[in-house]
Amino acid sequence: MALRDTLQADLQQAMRAGDVVQREMLRMLLTALRNEEVARRGQLTPEEEQAVLRREIKRREEALPLFRQGKREDLVAKAEAEIAVIRSYLPEELDEQALVELAQAAIREVGAKDVRQMGQVMKVLMPRVQGRADGSVVSQVVRRLLAGK
What we know:
Blueprint: H1 3-17, H2 20-40, H3 46-69, H4 73-87, H5 96-110, H6 118-129, H7 135-148
Helix pairs in contact: 1-2, 2-3, 2-4, 3-4, 5-6, 5-7, 6-7
């Protein structure tokens, strides 16, 4: 089932159950997907749909420190609940060990010896972890592995 169909079915279920947070998040996600399709003037690929969902997570994660700084625990709780809802529609992220193993394989494949070759490693590694790991985390792991060699 396509992501949009899943979101639509879950929206109907949330409406029947009276789950306000779930309902509002699903409406927001469907709107974000529609807006992206309008901007691109065409259907989104599954990877592009995931990118939209990740962007929505990132927006909320960036707002969390500001909410905490402003002592708005109600907004912190709401943002964390929204993040949990969005994450449930994304593929499971790679754990640290799996990411390290993939990075080591990419380093061996490229033959990288130091941090100056990080770009070559990232070019090989990113398509393999696309949608399952944040780019900044991948970058940190690769940098740490290359610096340790």
